[in-house]
Structures are given as C-alpha cells and as structure tokens.
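In response to the reviewer comment on reproducibility (Comment 2.3), we provide here a single inverse folding case reported in full, input and output, so that an independent group could reproduce the run without further information from us. The structure tokens appear first.
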C-alpha cells in the first residue's frame, strides 16, 4: 500500500516529503478553498513541481465539455498531472475517462461510494478509482467491506486501476484501510502528523532516556 497526501498546501507537502513516505498528492475543490486567496494555476504548478515525478490529482468540473477542456489545460502543467474525474450520475464521467485515457492522460475517478461505481471506473480504464471511506460510512454502508470487494474484483480480473481510499478523519481510519489491501490511502496532513505518536512509545522513550542518564552518572563514578 502507498500513502498519498490529501492537501494543496505547499508547506505541508514540503514537510511531509522529507519523511520519505508519500508517493503522491491528491486535491479537490474543498482542499483548494482552504488555501485562501491562492491562484489555482500557480498553486497547482508549484505542487506539481515540488512533488515531481510523483502524481498529483487535480479535479475538473462536473460537466463533460468543461471537464475535458480543463483536463487538457491541466495536462500541460506537468508530466505528473492526474485528472480527477467526478463519477457523474449520467455516465459522463465515464465518457471523460474513456476519452482522456485514449489520449494517454491519467485519470482518478472520484467520489465513489460503492462497488458498482468503482467497477465502472475500472471498466472505463481509469488509472485510479477513489473510494470515500467516511462518506461511505456516513451513508450507512461498510467502507472496509466495500474497499475489500473492489480490490478483490480488480485482482481477480487482472485490471490495472489502482484504488485510492480517501475521506480520512482519524488515524484509526488509516489502520482499518491498511487491512483492506487497497493500493493507496490518501491522508490529510493533520491526520498524518498524528500517526507517529503513541503515548506508550513516548513513555517508553522517556524511561530509556532516564535509564541512560543513570547509566552515564554511574559510568562517571567508576
Ligand atoms: C480524496 O481524494 C478526497 O480529496 C478527500 O479525501 C475527500 O475527503 P472528505 O470526505 O473529507 O471531503
């Protein structure tokens, strides 16, 4: 499983890149809204550059023609662009995936809540299919079971699409997703920053530190 960072903040990305654990970045309109007053094109280009060659997902609008225009424009901004295509209820998102993939443009079909939607994205040739973990749970379904079913269908059919699991609200969600064997989990900065912490690790390290001080004192008095 790989970790992507779910953010459009340059400082967050630069900091986490130094941990050496992320393999890509995902964004959406709500994530960009948090970057108050930034220019979308400039910010996206900066992200693409600092993250290169790792993939960066940029989301297009919810209308086929505008989505294709945006995709063609974003695709000029870097070699690592992935177009986030909404799973539109009339199937237009699938049409977009078909067109973009025939042009060699990578896609990430987003906002998916069930096996059927994910399977359609796979059939259309999506590079990535994004399941929204907590939004699935909010709508009353079991996101762990759905993620496992999608992964199983991909593995059994030998399809190339990779599942991204997003909509993460706590470190415990990440632990649950690791058990599903999904290809990617995309984690917000705030959640990722909590993950190295465990209170028993901290108290263990304090205990070892204290022992080391005692050892050094005893060593001095030999
Ligand atoms: C994933 O690609 C999305 O950007 C994101 O995880 C959606 O999360 P939300 O449900 O917190 O909006």
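Designed residues, in position order:
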């Amino acid at each position: 499983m790989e970790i992507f960072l779910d953010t459009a903040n340059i400082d967050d990305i630069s900091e986490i890149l130094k941990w050496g654990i992320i393999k890509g970045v995902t964004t959406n309109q709500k994530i960009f809204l948090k970057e108050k007053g930034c220019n979308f094109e400039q910010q996206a280009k900066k992200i693409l550059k600092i993250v290169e060659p790792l993939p960066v997902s940029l989301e297009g609008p919810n209308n086929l023609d505008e989505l294709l225009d945006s995709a063609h424009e974003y695709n000029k901004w870097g070699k690592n662009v992935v177009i986030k295509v909404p799973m539109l209820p009339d199937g237009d998102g699938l049409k977009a995936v078909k067109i973009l993939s025939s042009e060699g443009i990578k896609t990430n079909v987003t906002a998916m809540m069930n096996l059927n939607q994910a399977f359609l994205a796979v059939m259309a040739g999506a590079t990535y299919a994004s399941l929204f973990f907590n939004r699935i749970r909010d709508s009353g379904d079991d996101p762990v079971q759905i993620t496992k079913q999608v992964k199983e269908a991909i593995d059994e059919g030998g399809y190339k699409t990779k599942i991204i699991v997003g909509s993460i609200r706590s470190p415990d969600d990440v632990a649950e997703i690791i058990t599903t064997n999904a290809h990617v989990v995309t984690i917000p900065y705030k959640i990722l920053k909590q993950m190295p912490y465990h209170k028993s690790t901290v108290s263990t390290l304090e205990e070892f530190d204290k022992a080391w001080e005692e050892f050094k004192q005893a060593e001095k008095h030999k």
